[in-house]
Amino acid sequence: MKSWWRLFLKLTLTLTVAVGLVVVYLNANLTKQFESLSWAVGAKIFARPLELYQGAPFSVEQVRYELDVLNYRVVDQLPAPGQYRVLADALIIGTRGHVFPDGAEPARRVRIAFTDDQVGLIQTDTAASVDLIRLEPVMLAQLSGTHADRELATLDAVPPEFLQLLLAVEDQQFYEHVGLSWTGIARAAWNNVAAGRFAQGGSTLTQQLVKNLYLTRERTLSRKAVEAIYALLLDANFSKDAILEAYINEVFLGQWGNRAIHGFATAAQFYFGQPLGELALEQHALLIGLVKGPSAFNPRRHPERAVARRNLVLDLGLAQGLYSQSMADQAKARPLDVPSGPADRIGRFPGYVSLVKRELTQDYSSQQLTQEGLSIYTAMDPQVHRGLIEGRQTMLERLDARGLDPDKEVELGALMVDIPTGEIQAVVASRNDRPGFHRVLDARRQIGSLAKPFVVAAALDMDPRLHAGTLVRDESIAMTDDQGRTWSPRNYDETEEGVVLLERVVAQSINQATVHLALGIGLDGILDRMDRYGIPIGPSRPPASVLGVSEMSPFQVASQYQALFNQGYRTPLKAVRTVIDAEGNTLTRRSFESRRQIPVQVAVMVDHMMRVGAISGTGQAFGRRYDQVLASKTGTTDDGRDAWFVGADGRRMGVTWVGFDDNRSAGLVGALAALPVISDAFAHVGRVNRPSALPDGLHYVWLNPQGQIVGAGCPETAKRPVPVAFDAVPAGQCSPSNSTERGGAWLDRWFGG
What average pLDDT does the structure give for the chain? Predict the structure, then answer.
């Protein structure tokens, strides 16, 4: 008997030591893991902030639009952060504040008056005037390599009333127990015995955290035992506040495709599009109710269940005396108010986000972009994006009405660019914003008549005597190559005029005159310069290159036209402005770069020809829509396979391609299919005139319909820039001067005069 007793003691002692060693090992590991606990936080991509100051060109409607995009709520009382009130000619806004790369913008309440679609006086609650305020930028996306976004929250940033309700529902004794609730365990055990199966757990909030961080979700007694040990160790080593904060950021609250929603701050943005601190009582209750079963109580899939669960949470909080009966009743009476799709940034700007990601991969690794909490500030402008989206809808409706898109398969790529800086302000890469093939970056199609301004630029560059009034032959022409193949280009409308002004070659996109111009100046020289200007000619150097057989993406087209509209200076196109790390250090700040690509006099003269195109040429539907001086160029390829449009004011330019991915003949025309997209994009921004000042080497003269320089005040004349080699004519002299006739006589003879 004694031997058996001694054996029992030895076994007990051995087991105790073994368990002790295991516990010590687990404790060391757990402590190390928790102390080093950090969540992989993907880079956040932001739009430009809305900057408001006295005289800023924004109307009440435009500012309201941006507030709505930021998910500010309209209220009838003095607004709190994330709210605004509408008055007759003013807005009162409770701004949220934001830490920008160049400093912090405080959260405050401001009153903004408006006059004639401009910002007037800006005042704070104390009636003090403010020179400038910046609304927080729209978050376009958060990059994630683990398919889980993280919006982290510190405990002191979580509303106290939310924490009280969370503990009332999930763990009333959280601050009293040691990681385990013995009463909860006893209650769960009794219910499991009564049910005859493992139906209920007695998990504390600490145990839930352990399960999410370290264990599987299987429901077995052995896993529950390990969970209990981990919970005891976690509670013994760390403060309650540290455990609660970790839980708040880790709890699983939903799924969207392959995207997991972890943490209450992330869920607040996902379900409501607002920070956790701005949510109302019923919204708090909905999020807390999801802890029990994010799938079962998903408000988008099962709204009735979600309402019932939310109301139960409200009843539990009421039972704990957290609020009054009337507050609970009011909260229960409110609808879920959860949009059908994610309320945050997912899916709203896929084209622009893809562009940003591709730009970032040049400087940052995948790990940096998905795990290190970077903040990416871009030039994306929500107002411009709004215009592109409306323009896309206009285009699709127009094509549908004309039976040109019966199967709803037409696609497009469009972008808007700030001309001086090269910053990309908006991108639309498809007809429906679905992620996939990026038609702005990767769709390379023939550019058609978009090549003509560069042909003319090359000609002006090669011979400084050319100008807008130079006469060019517009007659049929045929060329035979070494293989015996004949190329005989025709004008789009199958007509010819014999002789046309050079500016009309661009403005009205005249094919035959373009070919005659290139041959007269020298085809090889024209092609060389086009290639130098960024129009790819290729080794075969086909003569049809002057009519746009070169294949380019909308991004590439925009890159070259930016130089043309920027007096010949090319600035690399970019979306990213600044990259900030998690500690607030600047990692990247895009510097301004610019180089001469086209002679300034050449670029300005071609620019003016495109201004004519926006008034009386193929782009007149764009130029006549607005009061400002604009420039434009349409493009259409053979059989209407591709429709292009480029439009610009004095600050922005836009490029659109429209066509079918399979390159089928479609009967599309640039003015019909592509122009509306860019035209509508300009409707929501402050437009400015194309610049009127001329560089050295040019001056304004008056041209008659025959392209001859005459005096100001003569009938049917137009003001155009020409090289200074041509003498000005006194006002009122309506017959060309002798010097003018001598200066252009050879041109008349060469090109058909």
Answer: 87
What local confidence, expressed as pLDDT, does residue 749 receive? Answer: 43
| Pairing verdict, β 90-94 and 83-86 | antiparallel
Rounded mean pLDDT of 557-569? 97
Catalytic choice (449, 550, 559, 632): 449
d(CA 93, CA 102): 23
Q: How far is CA 152 from CA 41, 158, 265, 618, in A?
A: 8, 11, 6, 53
**HSE-up (13 A, CA, CB side) for residue 109:** 12
Instruction: Say whether 170 is catalytic.
Output: yes
Rg of the chain (C-alpha set): 34
CA distances 332 to 317, 340, 432, 688, Å, are: 12, 20, 37, 51
**Which of the following is catalytic: 170, 227, 245, 359?**
170
CA distance 617 to 183: 83
Only one residue has tokens 């009386």, namely 616
Percent above pLDDT 90 for the chain: 62
Residue pLDDT, tens place only, 10-58: 666 666 655 555 566 566 666 666 665 667 788 899 999 999 999 999 9
Q: Is the pLDDT of residue 316 over 70?
A: yes
Question: Are the C-beta atoms of residues 172 and 165 closer than 8 Å to each other?
Answer: no
CA dist., res. 249 & res. 158, Å (int): 11
Please enumerate in sequence order all residues whose Cβ is within 8 A of that of 435, keeping only pairs 6 or more positions apart, or say none. 350, 354
Least confident of 65-79, 144-158, 285-299, 446-460: 144-158
- β-pair partners for 700: 721
Measured between alpha carbons, how far is 181 from 227 in angstroms, rounded to an integer? 13
Q: For the chain, how long is the longest CA-to-CA vector?
A: 137
Separation of alpha carbons 675 and 399, rounded Å: 12
Cβ-based burial of 546 (10 A; exposed 0-12, middle 13-18, buried ≥19): buried
Q: How far apart are CA 153 and CA 265, in angstroms?
A: 6
- Per residue in 64-79, pLDDT (tens digit) is 999 999 999 999 999 9
The DSSP bridge pattern shows strands 148-149 and 259-262 to be: parallel
Using CA atoms, how far residue 339 sits from 7, 268, 303, 342, 348, in Å, is 68, 12, 11, 7, 14
- Cα(718)–Cα(709) distance, integer angstroms: 10
Percent of the chain residues topping a pLDDT of 70: 87
